[in-house]
Every structure is written in structure tokens, then in C-alpha cells.
Amino acid sequence: MLRCWKPKRTSPKPQPSAAGTGNNECNSMNISHESPPPAPREKSRTTIENLRIKKTSSESSSAAGIRSGKERKQEDEVTNEESNSFEGKMRTMRKIIKKRKTSHKLKVGIFSRSAECEYEWLKTILNSQFFQNTVKSVQPCCITNNGDRQFAEAVSHCKFGILYHSQNRGRLNITNVTDSLYDKELQDLSTKLGKNSVIVVIDDLDDVSKEKKDAILEKQRSLKELAEEVFLFSRDEKKKLDQ
Which of 205, 234, 241, 240 is nearest to 128 (CA)? Predict the structure, then answer.
């Protein structure tokens, strides 16, 4: 009896797993199935803990975010172009506080007639990773007409003072003008802490240009004489902060 010849069965070659194949184009070109090299990491733009910046695009992220990593380790130098950006102002603020730091981080006081909720965003930043090597704690102090003793006690517990004023109160009457709100407090902060340990934050403005700042300093000269720096912040800048 004749036997039919049957071809020898061979086991099919095992197919490479999906993790090692790459795409179909690589298979057809007989390219070695190795895992592709990891994509280069994009430099992080959002670097302040507890402060989330809304990222609608990479452009807005670059404009509103505060970078860290190598920048936090470098000296806080700010170029002329950066000086009026949100990031530039925060880096300048950190540099000023850092100059006053010795072997210990500083207790920072925020002094204002405004409600604490109005400058909550500033407290958040000062308590964040961005200031972690310079700021130990942040102490708010509400200024009242009959609170001289409370104010003096709060100043005595701080090494650095921030005088905060919001235009939501209606006017920019900080000092040297009719019905100014902070003549005595600004003088006391400068006397007890030193001019280089005092800054002024003017918030909720529509215009934060250099021209606006110069106009304020021209009319309210004690700001320049009694404080190390004056920072202007706009409503639009704070809209980018997800509080």
C-alpha cells in the first residue's frame, strides 16, 4: 500500500508581543523590535505646590507659570523683559526675601486693612515650594484704627513685612495723600524691620505697567523711601491662578 506523503508540520514562528513590535511600518521594514528610546522630557513649567495655574495652551503656561528645577538653584536674576511678568515679580520678591535670610528661614507678616481672603493667593505662593528655602511661615495681620497694640505685637514676631493694599477698597491712598491708610504702619514697619525687609504689594489693578508704577511712586514717595520694592498685580494675572 502506498502512503501519501504529508509535509512536515512546523510550528508557526512566535509573533513578537505588542510591547516590542512598535508600529506596522517598522514590521514591514524588518526593523529590529526594540523598545523605542524614551521621549525627552518636557521641562516642567508649573512648579509651585498648592498653586495650580490653568493651562489652556503651552503659550499661556509659559506666560503664567513659575518654573523651577535649575532656576530655583540659580540666582534670582530677572531681565528687563521679565521684570513686569508675574514670574519675574515673584522671582524678584524671592530674591529680596532671600537677601534678608541668615541661617534660618524668615517669618513673614502680611499687614493690611483688607480681608485675609483678598490676599489668600499671596499666602499660598509664600507657603509654596517656590519660597520653601526662604520663608518659614506667613502671619496675616489685620490693621484697624484701634489696633496699635495688636499691630506692634505682630511686627515683633516677624523678620520681614509685606504691606498689602487692594484697589477694591476704591482708591490707591496708601501714603502721602489725602485720607491715606498706611502712613503710620509703613513708617513703623520700616523703622522696626528695616527698609530692606519691607515690600509693598498693590493688588487688583487694571494697569500694572512701569508707567503706572512710576506715577504711584511720584505721588506717594514714602513707598520708595520706606520700602525696598513695590509690586503691582492685576486682576487678569490672578485669573490665571486656580485658587
Answer: 241
Summarize pLDDT for 60-92 with one digit per residue, the tens: 333 445 555 455 445 556 677 677 899 999 999
3-state class (DSSP) for residue 105: coil
Give me the CATH number covering residue 111. 3.40.50
The 8-class DSSP code of residue 34 comes to -
Query: Which residues share a beta bridge with 198?
Result: 161
Residue 43: which H helix or E strand, with range?
Answer: none
41 lies in a domain?
no
What total of structural domains would you count in the chain? Answer: 1
Q: Is residue 47 part of a domain?
A: no
The pLDDT tens digits of the residues spanning 147-165 come to: 999 999 999 999 999 999 9
90 class by beta-carbon count within 10 Å (0-12 exposed, 13-18 middle, 19+ buried): buried
Residue 154 lies in a domain: yes
115 in Cβ contact with 81 (< 8 Å): no
Residues 6+ apart with CB under 8 A from 218: none
By residue range, what is the domain housing residue 77?
52-242
Interaxial angle between packed helices 183-193 and 148-156, expressed in degrees from 0 to 180 and rounded to the nearest 10: 30
